[in-house]
Amino acid sequence: MDKLSLTNPLFATYTIAATLMILKVIAMAWLTVLRMTLEKGGYRAPEDLRKTALNPAPDPSQLLPNERVERVRRIMQNDLENVPFFLVAAFLYILTQPPLAVAQWLLYGYVASRFLHFAAYFTGQIHDIRATTWTLGSLILIYMTVRTLLAAFSI
């Protein structure tokens, strides 16, 4: 069985987890635009103050920070700081041919941690809750990376 084929359960697990993470990051961009539209503010570029069908009554205050928009931007920034490492680390990890159940727990655990992090951040939970969900994902990344490194050294 080819390692990089969807007939390989390890690669299929990676594919599912990776595509969920990619879709999540893309969804954050859409959520940012939706928030700006609903709030009619939180824009960043001066040209956003031009009168258009989507902004029929531009106002200079629309360029001021809007906490509801900025919260979504911070979530997306956190994803952009973390998800690329997952995409690479998880890919390299599955090349080590770990047991399927372990890989599924780790990869899907990471995905779950990112969605829980989103929920905690989006709903304004205390830092400890957000940090706990982030830490879980970070520990998964560290574990996969160290296991991959050890596997590479053992060759």
The CATH superfamily bears the name: Membrane associated eicosanoid/glutathione metabolism-like domain
Distance from first to last alpha carbon: 21 Å
Q: How many E-type strands? A: 0
Average residue pLDDT: 94
Q: In CATH terms, what is the fold-level topology?
A: Four Helix Bundle (Hemerythrin (Met), subunit A)
Give me the Rg, rounded: 20 Å
Largest sheet: none
Helix content: over 70%
Contiguous helical run count: 4
Describe this structure in words.
The structure is a single chain. The chain has 155 residues and is mainly alpha-helical. It has one domain: Four Helix Bundle (Hemerythrin (Met), subunit A). The chain has 4 helices and no strands. Helix 2 packs antiparallel against helix 3. The chain is elongated. The protein starts with 8 loop residues before the first helix and ends with a helix. The mean pLDDT is 94.
Compact overview of the structure:
With 155 residues, the chain is an all-alpha fold. Helix content is 70%, strand content 0%. It has four helices and no strands.
Which keywords apply here?
mainly alpha; Four Helix Bundle (Hemerythrin (Met), subunit A); 155 residues
Question: Which helices and strands appear, and what pairs or packs with what?
Answer:
Blueprint: H1 9-39, H2 67-94, H3 100-122, H4 127-153
Helix pairs in contact: 1-2, 1-3, 2-3, 2-4, 3-4
